[in-house]
Amino acid sequence: MRRVVVTGMGGITSLGEDWPTIRDAFAAGRTGIRFMEEWGRFTDVNTRLAAPVIGFSVEDRYPRKKLRTMGMVSRMAVYATERALTDAGLLNSPLIQSGRMGVAYGSSFGSPDAVLGFYELKMNGTSKHLNATNYIRMMGQTTVVNISVFFGITGRIIPTSSACTSGSQGIGYAYEAIRWNKADMMIAGGAEELDITDSATFDTLYATSTKNDQPETTPRPFDRDRDGLVVGEGAGTLILEEYEHARARGAPIYAEIVGFGCNSDGNHITTPQASTMQQCLRLAIEDAELPPEAIGFVSAHGTATEWGDIAESEATHKALGSQVPMHSLKGHFGHTLGACGAIEAWLGIEMMREGWFCPTANLENVDERCAQLDYIIKTPRQLQTEYLMSNNFAFGGINTSLIFKRI
């Protein structure tokens, strides 16, 4: 069994693209949620709220030839990866193309606008907007292949298009690839671009927040007054590396991954099941060979949907007890879907290293139907812990749990 450490981190969110900027927003109580005036024409969608990344562009940063196959989701993934590789001291290293570096990365979907050329073809029999790159920008594995081609990766490629666990599965599968000597280094994470179709999906399930005139008050994970989720966008990338390999090249080491659990509810496409979520958490604890009480903090999925919050809290309570401190970052960023597992892991590691954890934004009164836990409310928490658990749960009943150790 080889040890796996995090040697680089990078991302892009609605609150910034580096830890000091994002931390300042957390400390000031700012969120990335805003009213989407440009969505006014979508009259059948009730929500007008989202957490967009403002002003992001790589048009002048990357060659036009490479941009042709990238929709916005791939551009964010590549940019987050560039930042993470730079952080790890690997951006211009021949190690990237040695065959011993791979990529495990995902998103819920590709770029929705790329579908329009195919739609036009099916509806009209011809299409002016269909070209050789539409499918590459649309396909579920668009992030992982664009990252691999952009950086010349020739090692193992693991696409993880699994909705809200795309990023966490990417990290978990990358960890396993290194642990079992299939790679020495892995680029791992997830990304998602904001599109009205994402919000419409949840809107049809009556799961979106409609506090359209109060964007600063929503979403409200675990709160009795929540009215649904808000969709966001962004990307997060971790560089994972075998411990001795990292030490030999003098790499920065931010944390060690010591546990990963992944399973399926096998029950319902959209309704979460607390019993299998609990089992997933226990799988991660068993993989880490830790007692449950060793977990000092939980980064929850916490989407601010009624049954999701309740089921997750029950699973966490049964797996870890009632004393474990916990927050959700989705009050700040909305639900970034395929990116959330990676963004939350990145920022969770940053907070664990600093010993400072932000509260769940907008959480004021815990829903009495949620299980008893130490929910961080209103003010940040100074907390030293050796182990952080980061959990995510997706459509289809896919459950993931990652455990990071402070180094």
Task: Walk me through this protein's architecture.
With 407 residues, the chain is α/β, with parallel strands linked by helices. It has two domains: 4-248, Peroxisomal Thiolase, Chain A, domain 1, CATH 3.40.47; 259-406, 3-Layer(aba) Sandwich (Peroxisomal Thiolase, Chain A, domain 1). It has helices spanning 19-28, 64-67, 72-87, 116-124, 134-138, 142-151, 166-179, 196-203, 243-248, 274-288, 306-320, 330-333, 340-354, and strands at 4-12, 34-35, 49-51, 101-106, 157-159, 185-192, 231-232, 234-242, 255-264, 297-300, 325-328, 356-357, 374-375, 381-382, 387-394, 398-406. The strands form three sheets. The protein has an eleven-stranded mixed sheet, with helices on both faces. α11 (306-320) links the parallel β10 and β11 (325-328). α3 crosses α6 (142-151), α7 (166-179) packs across α13 (340-354) and α10 (274-288) packs across α11 (306-320). The protein is globular.
How far apart lie the N and C ends?
Answer: 18 Å
Largest sheet: 11 strands, mixed
Number-wise, the strands total 16
Helix amount, in percent? 25-40%
Q: Largest sheet, order of strands side by side? A: 5-4-6-8-1-9-16-15-10-11-13
Structural class, judged by helices and strands? alpha/beta
CATH architecture of the largest domain: 3-Layer(aba) Sandwich
The sequence of SSEs as H and E is EHEEHHEHHHEHEHEEHEHEHEHHEEEEE
CATH-level-4 superfamily name of the largest domain: Thiolase/Chalcone synthase
Low-confidence stretches: none
CATH topology grouping of the largest domain? Peroxisomal Thiolase, Chain A, domain 1
Task: Report the mean per-residue pLDDT as an integer.
Answer: 97
Q: What is the percentage of strand-forming residues? A: 15-25%
* Envelope shape: globular
